[in-house]
Write a structure and sequence with these properties.
- It contains 12 helices and 14 strands.
- By secondary structure, the protein is α/β, with parallel strands linked by helices.
- The chain folds into 2 domains: 2-306, TIM Barrel (Alpha-Beta Barrel); 312-389, Golgi alpha-mannosidase II (Immunoglobulin-like, Sandwich), CATH 2.60.40.1180.
- The chain has a 6-stranded antiparallel β-sheet. Strands 1-2-3-4 form a 4-stranded parallel β-sheet, covered by helices on one side. Strands 5-6 form a two-stranded parallel sheet.
- A hairpin with a 3-residue loop joins strand 7 (313-317) and strand 8.
- Helix 3 (78-95) packs parallel to helix 4 (110-123), helix 6 (157-168) packs antiparallel against helix 7 and helix 10 runs parallel beside helix 11.
């Protein structure tokens, strides 16, 4: 515990907040909770003789992930619910951390999250607690856990599932992604705090897709991790990854950078997507360049409030171009993304009510004139540009 406290304190001194990874769904069979209180947990043997094992949809709230990982039955045991929610509050009080990343949210009943959030609001009043959950499923299921009385957010897998094929396959238009973006807004609002991801510990690394080592939805992704682990062969794949992160870092929501994304780490399915991080001389020139590009994007988001809190207006969403304008009370920022293999000239029609006169390139500082609400932008192949509009 002293080391955890030191870690959190040091992070806070650098303006960094810390989330704890909290697993409320299950414990290991050696845990004293299971040994001393088996009535707190679901049963492995179902009445029909089947094993209650990985029945993620049929027995969502009681299924076990593994035979050695008993799953809590919070519906049947109020004592377990009270103790585990108290345990979560204790961890934040003891460590000074700022919130949680919650595992396997859909396998835990809503009552657990309401109880936990009520206790957090009651017992920790000196800071805003951010809780992000992990749920695989439809948007209705994922959204059912996001509210003032439950979680702040969940990982936006619904948007992720559409973004991947749109960015990776030339035949898929950005129109599909924009439709899903608008659906996200209709459920969570434009200024939501859902977590936007490109990679996670449960998913094939984006770089393995971009480099052509694994096809989308391949049933061989886990096997390849053991028999033929992906390695990056094409330098252009780093540009594809950078482009996807340019999108992640300029849309509404909370951008999530899974470790290694910032250098273009590759990997097949779990556990190959959890390779050791590399630093210093272990990082090649393409990876170093990717790190610079991602750092630049992060700083652009940090320095421009419209990219964090602005509204979202789609200007173009076609086969290769996604252009959108984000505005808040301070500024207007235009992002233009080109996933095509050739340079593109993009003619943008801007809203007359804004009365815009010029555009400042946020990477070069060059100033262009906006005439009669028309703005022409040159965007390189697999590239992006960002402008401050005045």
């Amino acid at each position: 515990m002293p080391l955890v406290k030191k870690f959190v304190k040091t992070a806070h001194q650098h303006g960094i907040k810390v989330l704890l990874d909290f697993v409320s769904n299950h414990v290991h069979e050696e845990h004293p909770f299971w040994k001393e209180n088996p009535d707190w947990f679901g049963v492995l043997e179902l009445p029909d003789g089947r094993k209650n094992l990985r029945l993620f949809d049929q027995q969502r709230l009681t299924t076990w992930f593994e035979p050695y990982m008993p799953s809590f039955d919070y519906v049947g045991s109020k004592r377990a619910l009270e103790l585990m929610t108290d345990n979560a509050v204790w961890w934040l009080n003891e460590t000074g951390a700022d919130g949680f990343r919650h595992d396997a949210v859909k396998h835990v009943p809503n009552e657990f999250w309401r109880t936990l959030t009520k206790k957090l609001n009651r017992d920790i009043s000196d800071k805003d607690i951010y809780q992000v959950g992990e749920t695989f499923g439809g948007i209705d299921l994922i959204a059912s856990y996001v509210s003032n009385g439950q979680l702040s957010s969940q990982f936006n897998f619904n948007l992720y599932d559409v973004a991947l094929p749109v960015f990776l396959l030339p035949e898929n238009s950005f129109e599909l992604l924009d439709l899903q973006m608008q659906k996200t807004f209709s459920v969570y609002g434009v200024n939501h705090v859902m977590a936007n991801i490109m990679d996670s510990h449960d998913k094939v690394r984006y770089m393995a897709y971009a480099d052509g080592d694994i096809e989308l939805n391949s049933n061989k992704a886990k096997e390849l991790g053991w028999t033929d682990p992906p390695k990056v062969d094409n330098p252009s794949s780093y540009k594809k990854l950078q482009l996807h992160l340019a999108y992640i870092l300029t849309i509404p929501g909370v951008p999530v950078i899974y470790y290694g994304d910032e250098i273009g780490l590759t990997g097949a399915a779990d556990p190959d997507n959890r390779r050791m991080m590399r630093f210093g001389e272990e990082v090649n020139s393409y990876e170093k360049e990717t790190l610079k590009e991602i750092s630049k994007l992060i700083h652009l988001r940090k320095n421009h409030s419209a990219l964090r809190h602005g509204d979202f207006n789609t200007l173009i969403a076609d086969e290769n171009i996604y252009a959108y304008l984000r505005s808040d009370l301070n500024e207007r920022v235009l992002t233009v993304i080109n996933k095509g293999e050739s340079n593109q000239t993009v003619d943008l029609k801007l809203f007359p009510v804004y009365n815009l006169e010029n555009a400042i390139d946020l990477t070069s500082g060059d100033v262009s004139t906006i005439t009669n609400n028309q703005f022409k932008v040159e965007v390189s192949a697999i590239g992006w540009r960002m402008f401050l509009l005045n």
